[in-house]
C-alpha cells in the first residue's frame, strides 16, 4: 500500500513538472511585489482628469533657483526697467572682483575690457555697432543693463541662461563701474559685506 502511494505521488509530481513550460512565466508568488498597486509614473488611467498620472505643474510654478523677470522684452519694458529696477546686491570689493571675472568671460570680447565697445570681435570687424558704456544717447542705468542682459538687445544675445540672477547683478555692478570710469566720475563708495549680514 505504501509503495503504491509513493508511485502515485511521483506520478502526480511528474505530471505537474512535465506540463510546465520553462520559457513561460510560471506561478507568481506574492504578485504585489511585481504588479504595483500605486499608479505608475506617466501611466494612463481614466480616473485622472486628463487620463494621465503625471500632472502638469500648477500655474505660476517656477523651477528651483529660477528668478522670474517681470519686465517685457519691448520698449515699454525696457523703459520701466531702466527707470525703476535697482541692483540690490551689495557693492563690495569681492562682488566687483567676481563681476569683473564674469564680464571678462561674457562681455569683453565685444565691449572691451574698459567698456568702450572696442573688444576683440569689434577690432576684427566680426560685429558692428557695439556702443561705449558712456554713450550719452543710451544713458544706461543698472536697471537697463540688467534688462539687456536678460532679454538681449538687437545683435546682442541674452545671458539669462548662462548666468544666474546674482551673477547678472555682479556683472551689472562692474558695467556701472566701467561707465563711471569712462565718464571720469569718482568711483562709487564700496560697501562692507558685514553691514548686510545680520
Ligand atoms: C557678441 C557681442 C556682444 C557681447 C558678447 C555682449 N554685447 Fe552688449 N551689446 C552688443 C551690441 C552689438 C550692442 C548694441 C545693440 C543695439 O542696441 O543695437 C550691445 C549693447 C549693450 C548695452 C547697451 C544697451 C542699451 O541699453 O542701449 C549694454 C549695457 C550691454 N550691451 C551690456 C553687455 C553685457 C553686460 C554683456 C555681457 C554679459 C554684453 N553686453 C555682451 C554686443 C555684445
TrEMBL record:
Which key words are in the record?
A: Heme, Iron, Metal-binding
Q: Does the keyword Iron apply?
A: yes
Domain Cytochrome c: from-to ranges = 94-179
Gene Ontology MF terms in the entry: electron transfer activity; heme binding; metal ion binding
* One Pfam family it belongs to: Cytochrome_CBB3
InterPro entries per the record?
A: Cyt_c-like_dom, Cyt_c-like_dom_sf
Output this protein's name: Cytochrome c oxidase subunit III
Tell me the organism: Psychroflexus torquis (strain ATCC 700755 / CIP 106069 / ACAM 623)
Amino acid at each position: 500500500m505504501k509503495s503504491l502511494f509513493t508511485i502515485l505521488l511521483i506520478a502526480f509530481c511528474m505530471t505537474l513538472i512535465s506540463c510546465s513550460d520553462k520559457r513561460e512565466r510560471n506561478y507568481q508568488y506574492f504578485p504585489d511585489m511585481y504588479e504595483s498597486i500605486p499608479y505608475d509614473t506617466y501611466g494612463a488611467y481614466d480616473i485622472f482628469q486628463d487620463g494621465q498620472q503625471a500632472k502638469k505643474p500648477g500655474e505660476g510654478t517656477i523651477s528651483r533657483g529660477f528668478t522670474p523677470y517681470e519686465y517685457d522684452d519691448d520698449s515699454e519694458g525696457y523703459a520701466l526697467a531702466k527707470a525703476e529696477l535697482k541692483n540690490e546686491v551689495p557693492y563690495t570689493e569681492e562682488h566687483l572682483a567676481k563681476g569683473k571675472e564674469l564680464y571678462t568671460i561674457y562681455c569683453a570680447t565685444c565691449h572691451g575690457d574698459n567698456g568702450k565697445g572696442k573688444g576683440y570681435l569689434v577690432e576684427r570687424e566680426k560685429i558692428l555697432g557695439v556702443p561705449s558704456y558712456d554713450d550719452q544717447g543710451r544713458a544706461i542705468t543698472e536697471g537697463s543693463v540688467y534688462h539687456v542682459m536678460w532679454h538681449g538687445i538687437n545683435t546682442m544675445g541674452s545671458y539669462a541662461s548662462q548666468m544666474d540672477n546674482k551673477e547678472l547683478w555682479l556683472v551689472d555692478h562692474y558695467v556701472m563701474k566701467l561707465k563711471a570710469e569712462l565718464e571720469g566720475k569718482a568711483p562709487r563708495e564700496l560697501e562692507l559685506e558685514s553691514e548686510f549680514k545680520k
